[in-house]
Amino acid sequence: MSMFLRPPHCEWLALQGDRATGVEVRGPNGEVAKTQAYKEVIVGSGVYESSKRVMLSGIGPENALAQFGMKAISSSLHVGQNLPDHPILPHVFRLKHGLGLGDHLLRAGPQKAGAVSAYNRSDLLDLVGYSRIDERLARIKEYVKAKQDNGGKDLFGPAGQPRRMFFDAFQWHNPVPQKEAGSLL
């Protein structure tokens, strides 16, 4: 599904049997909209909210759902488990003066006003990209061997679900690299 929504948020997954076919979202005024996926549904609501949305939709460990009076539509023992096991590799780059959006966004003036105006008119500026890396992983012999040792199941999806993605988003709290002598910066 290629959809960028601002400010609605996902309430639950629309399911047909045990297959996600879309999402149900709630808008800022409480209105509910249902969307239909063309190909697949990728839940990208963060470490905790993704599991929460999936479990609220009836997908997860049966015993955990039963504690809240919910019936499991699809039993999946790994939903909501091992949440701290999400390695993050920040990518922070120092740019030459005049490159990037720092001056546009951090300093008052017509450039910032223009950027804020464009942001307010567009739903495309709340974007984080995901790249599938299946083919790259298949070329790493250590990964291939470990996957074979794991019964052919993906190491990043303990039940065999293939959901390997590279996530690269700017994070303000990461330190900026120091300029080194002789660098191109």
From TrEMBL:
According to the entry, every stretch annotated as the Glucose-methanol-choline oxidoreductase N-terminal domain falls at 16-87
Q: SUPFAM superfamilies recorded for this chain? A: FAD/NAD(P)-binding domain (SSF51905)
Principal location listed in the UniProt entry:
secreted
Statement: the UniProt record of this protein carries the keyword Flavoprotein: yes
An example Gene Ontology molecular-function term? oxidoreductase activity, acting on CH-OH group of donors
Provide the cofactor list for this protein.
FAD
- Any single Pfam family the record assigns to this protein: GMC_oxred_N
Q: Sorted alphabetically, which keywords does the UniProt record give? A: Cell wall, FAD, Flavoprotein, Secreted
Q: Which domain of life is it from?
A: Eukaryota
Q: Where in the cell is it found?
A: Secreted, Cell wall
What's the family?
A: Belongs to the GMC oxidoreductase family.
Q: What is this protein called?
A: Glucose-methanol-choline oxidoreductase N-terminal domain-containing protein
- Gene source species: Penicillium argentinense
